[in-house]
Amino acid sequence: MPAIFSLLLSGCDKGNPLTVVKAAAVGVPSLAPFFEENNGLGEDAATVRSQPVQGSLQQGDTPGLYGGSKQPTICDVVKLERFLTDPRNHQKAQAWADVLNIGTDGIPKYLDRLTPVLLRHDTLVKNHDYKKEKAVPYNSLLQAGIAILVDEQGLPAMKCSCGNPLRPFQGDTGRISVQFEDGNKKWAGYERESVVAVKPAPRKLERVALVDVQEPARGIDRPVGTTGEKDTAFDAEKRRTVPHLAGRSFAQARRELIGAGLAAGYAGQGVPPEGAKVTATDPPAGTELPFGRYVMLSVAGGGTSGSGGTSGPTTPTTTPPPTSSGPRTPPTSTPPSSGSSSGRPGTSPSPPRSSPPSASTASSTAPGSPSPGKSSSRPSPPPSTGSPSTGAPVTSSAPAPPPPPPPPPPSTTSAPATSGPATGQPATSGPATSEPADDGPSTAVAT
Predict the structure, then answer these.
(1) Which residues are bridge partners to 118 per DSSP?
(2) Of 268, 415, 424, which is closest to residue 341 (Cα–Cα)?
(3) How crowded is residue 340: how many other Cβ atoms within 10 Å of its Cβ?
(4) Is the pLDDT of residue 263 over 50?
């Protein structure tokens, strides 16, 4: 009987085979690195344990997706730049740049826009070994605690300890077969259901809000393109209010949660469609949560499970959240956003950074107006002689006034909103990278 059952399962899975993924544990050297690991390019954090996730595909600007520490040099970007720009390493630099869709002459500028972080989740990526003077891609699961560089849209770009370039994982996160070999033994706390893959934030980030892996109550506000020397701290335990999201599109609800310093969760392996209407949240609107906690979104035709940042499931909310919670109160615990300053110390000279006009370099919350098709509010129709619209009385002299526009989102996506003066470093306006943005102006990507 077990054999027949196994055969039936095998037949069902023929059209959707498992994706083989190689595990990469903290502190285990790569067998085919771009950069010799004993040269001190980067250092992982062995004490980090993977955090639970509510939705296996998260945007690079998700609050609390990444961690940091008070140690400012978990990844020596200056040393990497010297290595890749050394003429003796031209072949290796060419293979490295090809993976990231840039030219070798663009390596210094590209590196200047990367930001070092520590993984807080076991994270799926497309990794690359260096074999026979070529970059060889393979799917990999990086253990929480591994130090990486992320680009301007929060995407993993490089594994710090070995310099191997990273690209987004393209497989089904729910159908993976993780291989623990070559010294990469299964680590404590590993759960296949709790791995995460990262997709780009819709817009470039100015800063990344991290959780200190040694002091979880401490948040770290790190300007993009800096290695820790410009960090400012904020209170990660400060409560953020869950906004009223019923009737919003999934994309708009996620933007509002990110602006509030909270993460958008969903049930199942598939991300709800961007335009799917949110019917309820768990916990409901008005609930106060610490920075980076998950708020589960139920959408029309779908359900939800789990609760705001807890590791175990709870009963989902099945009715719309109460309207008495009022509008979202902007968080006040975040540090001021970054202002102009010098770049990464010791790097090759590069053009000074300046804030471009409009919000093309801001975070995934659209600073002007929501993207087309993502707003749930509509202006009132013009006066007519037909039947008046329902929901508000119409006088004989004028139509009902249109509803007020939603409050403007914060200036960055992964960091809490702030109204203080800028004190750090603005985002660069350099050339875009290979991953196209999925909202707002085209940014071909550099979290």
Answers:
(1) 67, 147
(2) 424
(3) 13
(4) yes
